[in-house]
Write a structure and sequence with these properties.
With 522 residues, the protein is α/β, with parallel strands linked by helices. The chain is built from 19 helices and 14 strands. Strands 2-8-7-6-5-3-4 form a 7-stranded mixed sheet, with helices on both faces. One of its GO terms (molecular function) is pyridoxal phosphate binding.
Amino acid sequence: MHRAAALVRRGCCPRTRGPWSRSQGSAAAEASAVLKVRPERSPRERILTLESMNPQVKAVEYAVRGPIVLKAGEIEMELRRGIKKPFTEVIRANIGDAHAMGQQPITFLRQVMALCTYPNLLDSPSFPEDAKKRARRILQACGGNSLGSYSASQGVNCIREDVAAYVSRRDGVPADPDNIYLTTGASDGITTILKILVSGRGKSRTGVMIPIPQYPLYSAVISELNAIQVNYYLDEDNCWALNVNELRRAVREAKEHCDPKVLCIINPGNPTGQVQSRKCIEDVIHFAWEEKLFLLADEVYQDNVYSPDCKFHSFKKVLYEMGPEYSSNVELASFHSTSKGYMGECGYRGGYMEVINLHPEIKGQLVKLLSVRLCPPVSGQAAMDIVVNPPVPGEESFEQFSREKESVLGNLAKKAKLTEDLFNQVPGIQCNPLQGAMYAFPRIFIPTKAVETAQAHKMAPDMFYCMKLLEETGICVVPGSGFGQREGTYHFRMTILPPVEKLKTVLQKVKDFHIKFLEKYA
């Protein structure tokens, strides 16, 4: 091969004419003959294939951005190319992305972020002094007074202090900044804690208890870590309540094949929207103490409580109020985020976790693990600081901040009630009260004929339903099978974030589609 190539190159530009020189034509002919003699090689096999890849990664599923969302993207591209559809836009009601759905940012938060990002604005009279004060404090704690520098792996010290102060105000109990870890959204914290908790082989492999329905992050991380998923079912007939007897059943059965070591709670619930009572939280804490379970409290929707009969109670607060036997022994990690609440700042990826009663040696291991990713985005840390350190009465920005916050939460409460009421008017749809969070998770009746058609297409019935809904209306929701549900029941999750008028349109389209769907497959 090398000789042939050399002959071709030399043949193109002969230097001399002598007894051994060849014409360009004869050189090319010899090269061609050499190439023909050489057998053709098949392409080299890829090192990374579906068969050789990490099987735990292959097992990961994340329904919120699964096949339905990929199909929605395809349809959007078709619309841009002018392909006619029965609708003019895709409405992405599959994910709790507040700003993408039209929610306006909180002015004060964006002012502080602007000042932190471009400190020259600190001299501008266009920004209020309370915003400048916070920006200066954050920047002074950053290397080189810049958000562009790395922070400590656990997070910027003054921001951790502000988080601890916020937790103390919220709960009326002490919070130690050394127990605060700033994270890349709450998801990063949950993943990190689970990494440390999972161990063992065979029957001693760590079992992680998660609610069904659940937020698919949990099942995805459990699959990635090759841990054992232990399902406990929320009571749909009782507004998705958590029943401790169901926890006992789940643990008892799990002990036959794994070591249940972790209990995950989502409060307020995602996708189910329930808000747990104080009595329920007490029962869960007592159960965790009794069974020696590490508690994970996902509390990212703590500001999103709409039902007048409900109130958010943090696990940390209830744990301390139960007395030292519990507060000094139950290991608890609590999570919060900038992405939800009234802020909706998903893109900043700000979050924190508070971990209490952690063994001192494990604390060192946790910091070591966090140090591998250096630090969470410092801009996200700054956004988290503004969430936990908002304007207070007497400060210049307090009135506007309070007005914007109340407006966002008030609108969400109206939309929660609107969604519940309109869904429950549709034959074959049943929706529990949306006590909190930002989703509806209605139960839908799917006729036997539709179930059989879905099975023929090798699809879950509710996936088939949601795909048809998308193709016929442009509305993108997530099938309940992606969150888990009791056998024989079907649901979908839909965010309530769109503006009221658009939400009414969405709900009407779902109603019309559902009625036609029932008629078609009756």
